[in-house]
């Protein structure tokens, strides 16, 4: 990990009110250390962590990703009941999901419009709308 990645990770965590433990900082540095947004699965982040030489269990990765989501640092993108991705980009935007490679990427938000949503129940308010556009290669 570079010093810049550690500094970015520390700032990211502390601004969200999370204590920058060694494990959180290692994962945060991998997620946002280069300043780029990314989509990860728990398994892909676990592999990246192992490749970087950090010792973090898969259970810790899952728990930490959940804590990051709860703190508002990331959002979970559920592709189907068995597949979740975690996105460091927090603005509202759609996603493309490539079924052949199981890769998820940001779709251009400026090209996407929702014309109308169904009427919400009386005791509800809209939290967010998740859009995953599934793609097949031709």
Automatic annotation (TrEMBL):
List the InterPro entries: FUR, WH-like_DNA-bd_sf, WH_DNA-bd_sf
Q: Where is the protein situated, by its record's location annotation?
A: Cytoplasm
Q: Which GO MF term does the entry hold, naming one? A: transcription cis-regulatory region binding
The answer, when asked if Zinc is one of the entry's keywords, is yes
Q: Which Pfam families match?
A: FUR (PF01475)
Its cellular-component GO annotations read: cytoplasm
BP term (GO), one: negative regulation of DNA-templated transcription
Q: Which UniProt keyword terms apply here?
A: Cytoplasm, DNA-binding, Iron, Metal-binding, Repressor, Transcription, Transcription regulation, Zinc
Instruction: Describe its assembly.
Output: Homodimer.
Please name the NCBIfam families in this protein's record: FeRespRegIrr, TransRegIrrA
What PANTHER family does this protein map onto?
FERRIC UPTAKE REGULATION PROTEIN, ZINC UPTAKE REGULATION PROTEIN
Question: Which protein family is named in the record?
Answer: Belongs to the Fur family.
Q: What is this protein called?
A: Ferric uptake regulation protein
Native organism is Falsirhodobacter algicola
């Amino acid at each position: 990990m570079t010093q810049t990645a550690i500094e970015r990770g520390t700032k990211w965590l502390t601004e969200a009110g999370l204590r920058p433990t060694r494990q959180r900082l290692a994962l945060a540095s991998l997620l946002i250390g280069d300043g780029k947004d990314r989509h990860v699965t728990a398994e892909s982040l676990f592999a990246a962590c192992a490749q970087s030489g950090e010792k973090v269990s898969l259970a810790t990765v899952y728990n930490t990703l959940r804590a990051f989501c709860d703190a508002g640092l990331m959002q979970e993108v559920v592709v189907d009941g068995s597949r979740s991705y975690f996105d460091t980009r927090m603005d509202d935007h759609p996603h493309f999901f490539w079924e052949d490679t199981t890769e998820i990427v940001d779709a251009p938000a400026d090209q996407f419009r929702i014309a109308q949503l169904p009427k919400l129940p009386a005791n509800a308010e809209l939290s967010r709308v998740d859009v995953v556009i599934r793609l097949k290669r031709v």
